[in-house]
Amino acid sequence: MNRLPLLTLSLLTATFAHAADWTFIGGPQGNRISTEKISQKWPVAGPKQLWKVPSDSGFSSFVAGGNGVFTLELRDTDGAKQEVCVARDADTGKELWAKPLGIAKYDGGGDSGTPDNKGGDGPRSTPTYDQGEVYVTSAKLVVTAFDAKTGAVVWQHDLLKEFAGRNIQWQNAAAPVVEGKLVLVAGGGAGQSLLAFDKGTGEVAWKAFDETMTQSTPTPATILGQRQIIFFLKSGLLAVEPTTGKELWRYAFPFRVSTASSPVVAGDIVYCSAGYGVGAGACKVTKEGDKFSAAEIYRKPGDKPLANHWSTPVLKDGNLYGLFQFKEYGSGPLKCVDVATGEVKWEKAGFGPGQVILVGNNVLVLSDAGELILVKAAADSYQEIARAKVLDGKCWTTPIVSNGRIYARSTKEAVCLDVSSKSAAR
């Protein structure tokens, strides 16, 4: 018997065992964590660039699935500036289709990165991919399911018109959550402010609550054995059972001007934060019988030390790693914070309000000036592993890792970089 093909197959299986699509802004598990193994040895010029294309305006990140990558851009369409859902080939960056979503948010903000910090134009939300379909919530609360290969509309709902929706200042930035057979969103009116649609047909599965949305994307999680979706609303955190919409627990938390970072779950602890002087807090979730409750374990008001404007931290071994700052453009620090106490263990300035994800044992940071920085997730000190300037423009978006590649974009361009383990040997 020839054993070589079997050996080759086993090696290939081991090589790609941890490769995965990044289908949601929060990653495959909703926690901004990748299990992939990527190269930690970058050339002086940075990881090998597979493609780079223009990508105009907005703060929509990429998601990846079915050999495609998807984001929202600002384009002149039908005589107006509209947000457009754009599908690209993951290997080449070639545009596969582009579908307009409606008039985009446009406030004359700059796009040249630091020190230009005047907000920005274009879409804020990120698509979600699931089993051949792409789900989008536009700035004006139109929820659309597209066929991922063709861009054909599968179903669509206008929350403002159909569900007495209530939009917010700067309009929607939250991504839709796909959980099982449902797509969950916020933005409806009284008695229907949270909604779940059948992901295949668009039929309403449930609607409930009288809440006002924020720009925060909900966090899916399992706490004390119970699957739940945690919405960060103007009233605070609200956790619901995804298939029925049943309320599980609440945590009252202040709102001022805007809330844009997502809740972070650490076992039975849930952390949240906002800018504009609100600061951070955490609650502990408990369960007695079939009833859940949440009790605050700390609250740290103010823009220091723990404000997260729109940057969501990641969790590793009981510590949060993230860009804790408020309007510290170009200079805001990366910090390591004990999630159970809110204690800052270390901080390193010079990142600004970009975004982070966790890749294995390392934090991947995209600074607001377009630098990718790989940092060891170590609680004792800041330990930088690699750094490269990869984008021009303003970067308030989340970098993603999918199948050995980093996909990232700014208000000017989008890039795909090879960080597969084999790339280190080149």
The tally of strands reads: 33
Biggest sheet descriptor: 5 strands, mixed
Calculate the terminal CA-CA distance, rounded to whole Å.
Answer: 35 Å
- What is the strand arrangement across the widest sheet? 1-27-28-29-30
Q: Which ranges are low-confidence, i.e. pLDDT below 50, for 5 or more consecutive residues?
A: 1-17
Helical coverage, percent range: under 10%
Overall 3D geometry? globular
Radius of gyration: 21 Å
What class would the helix/strand composition place it in? mainly beta
Average pLDDT, all residues: 93
Q: Total number of helical segments?
A: 2
Q: What kind of oligomer do you see?
A: single chain
- Beta content: 35-45%
Note down, in words, how this protein is organized.
This protein is 4% helix and 44% strand. It has two helices and 33 strands. Strands 1-27-28-29-30 form a five-stranded mixed beta sheet, with no helix packed on it. It has a four-stranded antiparallel beta sheet with strand order 2-33-32-31, with no helix packed on it. Strands 3-4-5-6 form a four-stranded antiparallel beta sheet, with no helix packed on it. A hairpin with a 5-residue loop joins strand 13 and strand 14. The longest helix is centred in the N-terminal third of the chain and has 13 residues. The chain starts with a helix and ends in an 8-residue tail after the last strand. The N terminus is likely disordered.
